[in-house]
Amino acid sequence: RIDGTRLWDSLMEMAQIGGTPAGGCNRQALTDEDKQGRDLFARWCREIGCEIRVDRMGNIFARRAGSEDLPPVITGSHLDTQPTGGKFDGVYGVLAGLEVLRTLEQNKVTTRAPLEVVVWTNEEGARFSPAMIGSGVWAGEFSLEYGHGRADKEGKTIGNELERIGYLGDMPAEPKPITAAFEAHIEQGPILEKQEQVIGVVTGVQGIRWYDVTFHGTPCHAGPTPMEDRRDPVQAMSLLCQKLYAEVKTFSEDARMTCGDLRAEPGSRNTVPEKVVLALDLRHPQPEGLEHLHQSLHRVVEEVQQATGTTIEVRDEWHSPPVAFNEDCIAAVDKAVNALGYSHRKMVSGAGHDSVYVSRVAPVSMIFVPCAGGLSHNEAESAEAEHLEAGGNVLLQAMLDRAGI
Amino acid sequence: RIDGTRLWDSLMEMAQIGGTPAGGCNRQALTDEDKQGRDLFARWCREIGCEIRVDRMGNIFARRAGSEDLPPVITGSHLDTQPTGGKFDGVYGVLAGLEVLRTLEQNKVTTRAPLEVVVWTNEEGARFSPAMIGSGVWAGEFSLEYGHGRADKEGKTIGNELERIGYLGDMPAEPKPITAAFEAHIEQGPILEKQEQVIGVVTGVQGIRWYDVTFHGTPCHAGPTPMEDRRDPVQAMSLLCQKLYAEVKTFSEDARMTCGDLRAEPGSRNTVPEKVVLALDLRHPQPEGLEHLHQSLHRVVEEVQQATGTTIEVRDEWHSPPVAFNEDCIAAVDKAVNALGYSHRKMVSGAGHDSVYVSRVAPVSMIFVPCAGGLSHNEAESAEAEHLEAGGNVLLQAMLDRAGI
Lengths: 405, 405
Ligand SMILES: NC(=O)NCCC(=O)O
Ligand SMILES: NC(=O)NCCC(=O)O
Prior knowledge:
The structure is a homodimer. Chain A is of the alpha/beta class and about 400 residues long. Chain A has helices at about 5-15, 30-45, 90-105, 135-140, 145-150, 160-165, 190-195, 235-250, 285-310, 325-340, 355-360, 385-405; strands spanning about 50-55, 60-65, 75, 115-120, 180-185, 200-205, 205-215, 220, 255-265, 270, 275-285, 310-320, 325, 345-350, 365-370. In chain A, strands 1, 2, 3, 4, 5, 6, 13, 14 and 15 form a 9-stranded mixed sheet that branches. In chain A, strands 9-11-7-12 form a 4-stranded antiparallel sheet, with helices on one face. In chain A, α8 (about 235-250) packs antiparallel against α9 and α10 packs across α12 (about 385-405). The complex binds N-(aminocarbonyl)-beta-alanine (2 copies). One N-(aminocarbonyl)-beta-alanine sits at the interface of chains A and B. Chains A, B: This is Zn-dependent hydrolase.
């Protein structure tokens, strides 16, 4: 069994790095705060004798040797947060992995296969788009050049920022043989809490599509220009949003639509904007469902162009199709949960996770624990110490199950 | 008669300061470019013997002495532009005034009353809100403290920026007795061009209200959060826009609604924003019409709050009620247009102008000339040299009429 108090204390210590007045975290990928978080993690791992290696994408691998030279059992998640993020998203998965290693060290247990805890770079996709890019490059979904070239809103790239904070490692960002991989995470949704269950046995991840939608209008004066002479990109954007929200909601209760970022250019109050740029996120658990949403978007774009005389450009920014996790890994989690006697249910993740890309090259599954009100990507994100401990115990058992003693 | 070629050449020379690749101007208030434009204007005025004085709001007064110590006849407009502005908005009114003085100088004509050409600070309201703040402080609508304290998006204030560019003058920003004031301007709308008229005899300016509308939601994760659990400020903003556009369009063809600026915070694609901030501009030529729009906004806000569960905050940023110009000044323009034989019509301005505030303390009217396609606040803004010359001739005659020779 893991030490729930030690896990909680480490979570709280990490949360001070980039801690916000509202009690959340702003530790965006490859900032000075991210560097501090990485340094703290590496120090903690070295203290229990782990070897630390960093790859060309800044992914950190902390290794605890096994008794045999087998492919490792890995776990991990990310330390980066949203700009107004919480204390648990990602961090929990990393520190639960660390807690597993600490528990084994304390009990002088050596596994047959080595164990590794991984910190994946830029999982959130908040500073650099897309999400899960560290694990994505590592798993071969994206090239290293693509990864290094991704830029934030100020034009700073992942490659340069990795170098700046000292985390541009020399190990190739590419997979090696892996026995099994697990990732513990808060659910980030309301299901476990509503159903009063402690553990989610995660069977897969829903599909995600990201778009940059640009509405091109004609700038003109707010006063003398008659309404019917305008090609107004705000009119177009608001009409598209209203139509698409309605379509998404009536299509299926599993469908999701989020407009997380939005800006008008040139952004002068008495000028109809030249353009409006919208960052759009659509999701569905089934491939056909996601395809339906994609088609709906393009149909609504046509309708809105017709209705408003504006030109609407839709650029595909990212597509992460639905993923089903490995049966054996799911079974290992299921077995652990049953042995430990926690209430549980099977579920599909609504959020993307590094496990999506890891699953391309290794057997993977995930372990969810509840979070208060299902709230995440919010400074008020919170979770019960007891649930976090339960998830850690499941992770320990599942890893031992696959690594052997 | 003025020299149309000299006027055109001066417009083109001024347009090089802050000239954009798309052929427009970006010479926003109190930037280095604005300073260069002001310096050029001051040099031109000194070359014809004018005395230059600058007040505490950076308003520049170029004075040509009269034969008697009478209150001056003034004209002028502004040199600042929108971020993606044109070559004529404001600049034309300033340089047409300069051209009047040059013509009198060339012809060795001395008027009875002195003449002054004024450059008013920050008319556009693009960098610093509200619009017409230089003339507004001067006329007593706003206090000097309020004027100096207004900040741009980076937090830089008018007071500090005036000092930085060397245009924080020592003359009090307050009115003195004035015989009459005129302002020449491009129409910035389509009426004169459509009706093939050369001169608009402007009888007043419609009313304007500016609002900062903030939609407060609950940030949450784009994936796991069910649509019905969200308090989504983009949903609220788009619904409000659609409802209000519909109300404004059905209320009256004279009503205007513009959403010139818009942004989401924290602005992360996979997070429902915490808030959306919208800069809203509503206009109507009649006070009752503007009040009706104001009431509509507040009713729609209530409806949208009910429908979306968000909280919507409406902050009044500026209110410029409809203005009727002075009968004698309108008559002076009308007389000049008729004497010169230009086709013309009476009209109400859709845009706000410095004349709105000048009219609080002096008899005022305005002279409009057509602009291509009615387009303004756009880099493609353009006007015919012939029309600009006609407007300059009307200005000359109207000023001579009030100043006497
Ligand atoms: N776990 C998490 O917040 N991932 C970010 C990627 C996504 O948008 O789902
Ligand atoms: N003339 C002009 O563009 N004025 C700006 C003030 C307004 O918004 O009407």
